[in-house]
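CORE FACILITY INTAKE
Project code: CF-77B
Contact: R.S. (postdoc)
Sample description: multi-component assembly, two entities in total
Requested service: structural model of the whole complex
Turnaround: standard
Below are the sequence entries exactly as provided by the requester. Do not edit them.
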Amino acid sequence: MIVALGGGTGAAKLLLGLCHVIDPADLTVIVNTGDDFSLHGLTICPDLDTTAYTLAGFADPERGWGIDGDTFSALSWLHRYGREAWFHLGDRDLATHLHRTALLREGQTLAEVTDRIARSLGVRARILPMTNEPVSTIVLTDRGPSALQEYLVRDGAQPAVRGVSFDGVDRSRPAPGVLEAIESCRGVILCPSNPIISIGPILSVPGIRDALRATEAPVVGVSPVVGGRALKGPTDKLLAGLGYDVSALSVARLYQDLLDLFIIDRHDAELVPAIEALPVRVRTTATVMGNLEAKISLAKETIAGLDSLRAS
Amino acid sequence: MIVALGGGTGAAKLLLGLCHVIDPADLTVIVNTGDDFSLHGLTICPDLDTTAYTLAGFADPERGWGIDGDTFSALSWLHRYGREAWFHLGDRDLATHLHRTALLREGQTLAEVTDRIARSLGVRARILPMTNEPVSTIVLTDRGPSALQEYLVRDGAQPAVRGVSFDGVDRSRPAPGVLEAIESCRGVILCPSNPIISIGPILSVPGIRDALRATEAPVVGVSPVVGGRALKGPTDKLLAGLGYDVSALSVARLYQDLLDLFIIDRHDAELVPAIEALPVRVRTTATVMGNLEAKISLAKETIAGLDSLRAS
């Protein structure tokens, strides 16, 4: 069993590659839920959905979010009614939110609902939310605090970032199966997701970071930063806003207590000595996943990294 | 001000005609809410929506329900998730249910929400739910009790009908403005809707039937039955199942304490003596509303009927 920790689109690319390299039934993905929020009375879980849609083969390959070929008729009418229309709710996607919200109201846990949605979509990997309890990633900006999706989508990641908090995380517990998976797996992958807002909330759920430190399984991270820029999303703005250098080295520092190996892009080879001095072992490869071939290739390299650690 | 009591598609046809004959701003429609039900966590009000969509010019002219040109992407994914898919929720239509459900949860009344939706759609007439309290029309069939939409749509009106009840109606109160509109208007129209399941619930809200009896305004009914058959929907099955003859005469009997005039189809002219013997005045005309011209024509005839009563 391989355990992967991930957020949205960056993680989903590597996970899709992994499903071509190992049996998806041997993959457990622990997903960030700090982005979850309520809109129009619906509980929306962007990272869980991106993960499920991607692993089911339904993801929109252009956008990286939502369902391929989805339409936006409901959204245009929500707009007509004067409702917030900045979050791009597709019509098919809406069915997921309706289904999830209805099941949660009936008393099912987020983990149960997530599993049910994934099975309905034909996902063979196991998708676990980091926690069943609500956690909200709040971005503190120069315009005040915003929920993460408000900052990212509504405000286009424009406001300057002063800090990030994960509201509710102190009271949260790892979802059933999360700690067991970390303890008993043959390897852990920290996907190339934003270390602050995607992997950060997962590591902040009490018990998860400790379990990653304690597990006998090797832990491999894949850098989401190449050549001083984030591959996707506002990682660079967030890192810079919080006072970090935007580099694979900064990411390695954030994970250094956990990592047995860090995979960085070969364009960042000059960072190898500094990362090794943390000390963290490094492997360089091509980490930009522009097509399926590149995703599979990075997945193979990641599994090879895990295997090399087990052999050593 | 003209007040019309109506249910779904039959009423909507006449109402559309009325809006070509009088200023829509002078029309108040009191709408049945006994069909309202919950599905996928949404509060769905079929008759309110049919009325609003029709008066806004958005109704699907073929089907009589829903929004013209609507798509059904969300529904197909709800079906994929194993959810009930018998109720034909269009994607645009879904926005209405989401908006209404969210506003109701925020504490607005159904009347407030209904007004807000109607204004957003550009409806100039005033649409009032019969009551703000939940009322459920239950059809007792040989297979047990069913909510009305389950009986009509899910079961295709196939089970034999033994009776009808309006759960919650005893505790309901007319929505604000309903009694005032009936008291102060210059005429009341009972639209050609099902007398049992569309007009019946409205008349069962405590105070509404009495207000119709007491108002000085003339009350005109339009028969939904022509030549022993219902123009639309399961009116004939319901009337027959409850032991009524399926005829304009049966409908006139159900309303006889209220009616100053009953408009029936000229094909039913042989029923005039029996209806007049109730005693209810009768006017015969063409009541089948196959196109907009016919709707306007029947609306003119209805207004002429009201005016004749006021003159007499």
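Facility notes:
- The interface with chain A takes residues 40-42, 67, 70-71, 73-78, 80-83, 90-92, 94-96, 98-99, 101-102, 105, 116-117, 120-121 of chain B (CB under 8 Å).
- The first helix of chain B runs from residue 9 to 21.
Invoice: internal transfer
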